[in-house]
């Protein structure tokens, strides 16, 4: 009886260890901060911070596992916006995705409420998207993140070919969950 219990316990432990997502638990994390927002990201990933214009608020940050990876994590712009304007932006994403040949995988409706979430206590709309382009399947996620207190928003997305998306999406979700506005 003890042997059977010991075997069941050992098999259960193997099953739990085999099913856990060790990749993002063993990563060393660094913090990016630019005075407007901050987030954590894997220290070995490549990060690029590019200013689109002279104002410090309109820039993009791109992070990827390495320079040749198709998987990219991006944060774009900071803009003033009300909750209603953010809802309209979510509606635009729904409508334009259909026109652009994108499939929204996490919802089957044109009602933005279905995509509404809270991330770190910030209002967000979250879309999981898929597109076939040049005989290759691309997957990604888009977050429209909003700080209701300061009436500011920003777009966060990550995408890549289906294999790289599947390999990196759990790490990217941890980056999103670590995001903070610094206003």
Care to describe what's here?
- The protein is α+β, with helices and mostly antiparallel strands and about 180 residues long.
- It has one domain: Protein Transport Mog1p, Chain A, CATH 3.40.1000.
- It is about 30% helix and about 40% strand.
- The protein is built from three helices and eleven strands.
- It has helices at about 1-20, 85-100, 160-180, and strands at about 30-35, 35-40, 45-50, 60-65, 70-80, 105, 115-120, 120-135, 135-145, 150-160, 180.
- Strands 3, 4, 5, 6, 7, 8, 9 and 10 form an eight-stranded antiparallel β-sheet that branches.
- The protein is globular, with a radius of gyration of 19 Å.
- It starts with a helix and ends with a strand.
- Residues about 1-20 have low confidence and may be disordered.
Question: What is the CATH class name?
Answer: Alpha Beta
Tell me the helix content: 25-40%
Classified in CATH, the superfamily is Mog1/PsbP, alpha/beta/alpha sandwich
Which ranges are low-confidence, i.e. pLDDT below 50, for 5 or more consecutive residues? 1-22
Gap from first CA to last CA:
62 Å
Order of helices and strands: HEEEEEHEEEEEHE
Helix-strand category? alpha+beta
CATH fold category name? Protein Transport Mog1p, Chain A
CATH architecture: 3-Layer(aba) Sandwich
Strand content: 35-45%
User: Number of folding domains?
Assistant: 1
Helices, by number, come to 3
Largest sheet: 8 strands, antiparallel
Radius of gyration: 19 Å
Number of strands: 11
Give the rounded overall mean pLDDT: 83
